[in-house]
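Incident log, support desk, overnight shift.

02:14 A customer reports that sequence design results differ from what the structure should imply. Their input is reproduced verbatim below. On-call engineer (initials T.W.) acknowledged and began investigating.
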């Protein structure tokens, strides 16, 4: 059997196996929709709150108007006491509340400190943080307004008062995530992780299901089988990678700053190393269901040690060391620098060479694993 005929047999075995076909073709397409879906609205806005106005003064009404004008908040009701506000949050009518104390205006005019109480449902972290950010901004704006009016009453010029209240103006320009949203932050790394995990699962199921059976894989040389399997999965995942890195990034408006040629060059050892790792991994099992179970269990740890959803500095050093043997972790780190941050090739070259080192490492493991399985194919176990 020549090399291309063997590749055709490999491709036929992948396509006709329902578990592998669903994992590869169905999983890649399904996750390209599922994972970005929660982040399409980027950041939470117009979160519903209720207000307890204990002062009923012109200044308290000003604070309420500022809250309503905030892009992060929407005042849905004004209640009489804190108990009602807490009940509104518990029932889901609102996600947070603002309490303006009695004597708010009087104490401010007497230049006494006043405390505005905020509260909310902390079960939804993004919603809770949006409410707190909006309410803190409202409190700061109200404080500046009072100070502004007080300084004007003393006879100071309006421009001078503005300079005193805002001596420093911050001009914030996001460098790599202009929208400050979660799509550009999460999606690029997660899609690479999906490619990594589904490729490992596909090669794992294929190998684990073959070792106890007779078939074309027993009638060819070890090196021929290994190279044909890597080439077949590499061809399939070249298309999947183009779909993720190309179409999905465009569709979800993910910021891209990398050169296409350099991106393809960087991803080449990733596909080779991951394919070889999957083949080596498959030699550990003779049951088709086990590779999927094991890889699903370690998906979340791999996500965290990748360093883009959790600071690497907070990950134990032994875990960081072990993670350097995972092709997906190295690739995510390098691709985020190259494709999202616009890093030059010299910056990611060490990671690229590390991936080639993993290619050699897993090539050796895959060769030894296949040799062990094929030599013991006649064993009843």
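02:41 Re-run completed on a clean worker. Output:
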């Amino acid at each position: 059997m020549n090399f291309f005929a063997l590749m055709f047999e490999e491709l036929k075995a992948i396509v006709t196996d329902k578990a592998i076909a669903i994992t590869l073709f169905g999983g890649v397409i399904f996750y390209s929709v599922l994972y970005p879906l929660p982040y399409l609205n980027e950041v939470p806005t117009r979160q519903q709150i209720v207000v307890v106005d204990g002062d009923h003064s012109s200044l308290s009404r000003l604070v309420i108007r500022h809250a309503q004008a905030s892009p992060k908040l929407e005042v849905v009701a004004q209640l009489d006491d804190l108990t009602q506000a807490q009940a509104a949050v518990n029932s889901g009518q609102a996600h947070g509340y603002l309490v303006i104390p009695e004597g708010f205006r009087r104490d401010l005019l007497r230049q006494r400190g006043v405390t505005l109480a905020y509260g909310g449902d902390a079960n939804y972290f993004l919603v809770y943080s949006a409410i707190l950010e909006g309410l803190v901004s409202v409190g700061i704006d109200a404080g500046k307004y009072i100070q502004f009016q007080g300084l004007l009453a003393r006879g100071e010029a309006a421009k001078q008062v503005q300079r005193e209240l805002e001596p420093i103006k911050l001009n914030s320009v996001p460098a790599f995530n202009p929208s400050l949203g979660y799509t550009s932050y999460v999606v690029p790394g997660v899609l690479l992780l999906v490619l990594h995990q589904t490729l490992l699962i596909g090669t794992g199921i294929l190998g684990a299901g073959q070792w106890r059976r007779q078939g074309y894989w027993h009638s060819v040389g070890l090196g021929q089988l290994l190279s044909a399997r890597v080439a077949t999965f590499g061809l399939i995942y070249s298309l999947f990678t183009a779909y993720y890195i190309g179409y999905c990034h465009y569709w979800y408006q993910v910021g891209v700053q990398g050169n296409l040629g350099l991106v393809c060059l960087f991803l080449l050892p990733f596909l080779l190393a991951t394919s070889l790792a999957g083949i080596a991994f498959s030699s550990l099992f003779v049951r088709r269901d086990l590779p999927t179970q094991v890889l699903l269990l370690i998906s979340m740890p791999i996500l965290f040690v990748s360093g883009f959803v959790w600071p690497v500095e907070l990950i134990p050093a032994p875990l960081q060391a072990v993670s350097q043997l995972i092709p997906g972790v190295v690739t995510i780190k390098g691709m985020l620098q190259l494709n999202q941050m616009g890093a030059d090739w010299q910056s990611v070259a060490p990671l690229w060479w590390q991936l080639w080192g993993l290619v050699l490492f897993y090539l050796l493991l895959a060769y030894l694993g296949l040799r062990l399985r094929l030599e013991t194919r006649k064993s009843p176990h």
